[in-house]
Amino acid sequence: MINKKVSVRERTSYSIEEKLIVVKYALKHIGSGRKAFYLKAKDKLYKWIIEQRKKGLAVNYIMVKLQMHKILKEPVIQKLYPMGDNEFQGTLTWIQSFMKRFDLSLRRKTKISQKLPEDTDAKLEEFKRFII
């Protein structure tokens, strides 16, 4: 039998100051995943959807995709994202994620409550007298 020596590694400990330096460096230089694209365009798209809702109009996936392409063609936005309209695909997954991030849904009110006539109370009293 051959005797194998197990090497024992010496442990290294770091001070709080050294740990803080590492953490600060990581926060400054290491990102947490993918960078967000088209931030300004997304804000404009969100505002557009809200405007449509205030008008009582339905907004569907196709409308959202087309509006995003329209926004990406605007001169101000093209300066920020020169290849934006060419690169943007507007997949169903992207639209669903966008809607979820901004806490939006595609549903809208199906009925707007009707205003009652001013003489509703009088008619109700008259109806009650008629029944009794």
Please provide a written account of the structure.
Helix content is 56%, strand content 0%. Helix 2 (39-54) crosses helix 3 (61-72). The mean pLDDT is 82. It is built from 7 helices and no strands. This is HTH CENPB-type domain-containing protein. It comes from Rhizophagus irregularis. It holds the Pfam family HTH_Tnp_Tc5.
Largest sheet: none
Tertiary shape: elongated
Helix % is 55-70%
Total strands: 0
Overall pLDDT? 82
Query: Count of helices?
Result: 7
Beta percentage is under 5%
Main features:
132 residues; mainly alpha; 7 helices; single chain; elongated
Please write out the topology.
Blueprint: H1 16-29, H2 39-54, H3 61-72, H4 75-80, H5 84-87, H6 92-101, H7 120-131
Helix pairs in contact: 2-3
Domain HTH CENPB-type: 29-108
GO molecular function, one term: DNA binding
Keywords: DNA-binding
Briefly summarize what is shown.
InterPro entries: HTH_CenpB_DNA-bd_dom (IPR006600). The protein is mostly helical.
